[in-house]
């Protein structure tokens, strides 16, 4: 081997210090990414759904059966800057609950959440102005039917450009 070749090979020699540097850089990157992901998950978590899962579960079946007996079907569409909610009964007739609250949320954070003011539109639809961008959204409906039955429904949908 020529002297020049030996000098180049010696510069690329794998020493204990280089191996240690490779391991520290590799695992350091893994730890940094894990810490960032954990922090992001905790910082953007929207919070709890109910204060006591056990207490809520005690009446869940009765509430679900009563809501299913209503026979309501809800669907959502975005037309420009308007959310269009169609709420119909089992016969396809429009339904107007005694009270209905609508919250448009992102499933992963609260920065774009919007409490909606629904207005009656033509043909039994409810409309509300919204500001939305591409991605996954959830419309949370909570209300009361005219007979006093609680109504809760989540509609998850995705907007694409």
Query: How are the strands ordered across the major sheet?
Result: 1-2-6-5
Uncertain stretches of 5 or more adjacent residues: none
Count every beta strand, where a strand is a DSSP E run of 2 or more residues.
Answer: 8
Overall form: elongated
Structural class: alpha+beta
Separation of the first and last Cα atoms: 62 Å
Order of helices and strands: HHHHEEEEEEEE
Residue fraction in strands: 25-35%
Number of discrete helical segments: 4
What gyration radius follows from the Cα positions, in whole Å?
Answer: 28 Å
Described by strand count, sense and barrel closure, the largest sheet is:
4 strands, antiparallel
- Mean pLDDT level: 87
Helix content: 25-40%
What does the model show?
- It is built from 4 helices and 8 strands.
- The strands form 2 sheets. Strands 1-2-6-5 form a 4-stranded antiparallel sheet, with no helix packed on it. It has a 4-stranded antiparallel sheet with strand order 4-3-7-8.
- The chain has helices spanning 3-11, 16-44, 53-58, 60-70; strands at residues 73-79, 82-88, 99-105, 114-116, 119-120, 125-129, 135-144, 150-159.
- By secondary structure, the protein is an alpha+beta fold.
Secondary structure blueprint with pairings:
Elements: H1 3-11, H2 16-44, H3 53-58, H4 60-70, E1 73-79, E2 82-88, E3 99-105, E4 114-116, E5 119-120, E6 125-129, E7 135-144, E8 150-159
Protein traits:
four-stranded antiparallel beta sheet; 4 helices; alpha+beta
Concise structural overview:
The protein is of the alpha+beta class and 161 residues long. It has four helices and eight strands. The model has no long low-confidence stretch (mean pLDDT 87).
């Amino acid at each position: 081997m020529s002297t020049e070749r030996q000098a180049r090979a010696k510069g690329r020699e794998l020493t204990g210090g280089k191996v240690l540097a490779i391991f520290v850089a590799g695992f350091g990157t893994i730890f940094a990414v894990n810490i960032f992901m954990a922090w992001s998950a905790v910082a953007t978590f929207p919070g709890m759904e109910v204060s006591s899962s056990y207490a809520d579960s005690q009446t869940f079946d009765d509430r679900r059966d009563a809501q299913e007996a209503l026979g309501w079907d809800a669907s959502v569409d975005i037309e420009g800057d308007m959310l269009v909610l169609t709420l119909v009964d089992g016969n396809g007739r429009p339904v107007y609950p005694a009270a209905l609250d609508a919250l448009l949320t992102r499933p992963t954070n609260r920065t774009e959440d919007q409490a909606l003011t629904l207005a009656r539109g033509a043909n039994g639809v409810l409309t509300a102005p919204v500001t939305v961008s591409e991605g996954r959204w959830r419309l949370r409906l909570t209300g009361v039917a005219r007979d006093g039955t609680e109504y809760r429904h989540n509609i998850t949908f995705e907007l694409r450009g």
